Predict the structure.
Amino acid sequence: MGGLGSGGHNRRHRGAVEAHRRLSANSMAKHGVFSEGWSGRWGWTGGDGETNSWIWVVGGRDEIRLDFRFRESGGDWQPVDQTVTLTRVPKPFGNDQPYFFCPRCGCRALHLYGAQQRFLCRKCSGLVHASTRERQSDRATRQAHKIRRRLGAELGIDDPAFRPKHMRQTTYEKLHTRLEQKEAESWDDMLLLLQRLQTSAGRTSTRRSRTPSPCRRRSAFW
Ligand SMILES: [Zn+2]
């Protein structure tokens, strides 16, 4: 039986979806898993292309069974026998789109994630996409760069961004206002981060020089 969860599957820090084993309804359908009589291994490969974990799957048209072992980081391996119900939604040109029903919330899901003891939808697994975890400053900078490229300007925050010859004045003004707004957001967030780092560094040096009272520790926000 295959095993999941040997590393990084910690209950408090589940993290981004990209870091977890994922079952894809489309991929399973393509490989014939959603037909009666199918059974076999379903595996995931590591960066070197070698299969590094797998589960046993008994396929089916209305439900599939997943058989595997799971452990929270460092804990004991637990055998898991999970049944996942399937549904199909007709597509406009004939084929059906298969979905899993999330075993916890009952919602339709194209993907289930092996971040907890059972395979669950993204929300129930407590996962976010890596892009939603990026800092506000990263996002604002990326959006500002996009506008700068459109204006044919250099990407530096201090570089001028003039109106390209072919661009209408109103379009340029709109883009330029948005650029200023995004660059201001980016600065604000970076300054906030810097302030937090300075506060944190100050706190660390205070802790080193004298033992803080329990109350001081509690008042710290990280
Ligand atoms: Zn769910």
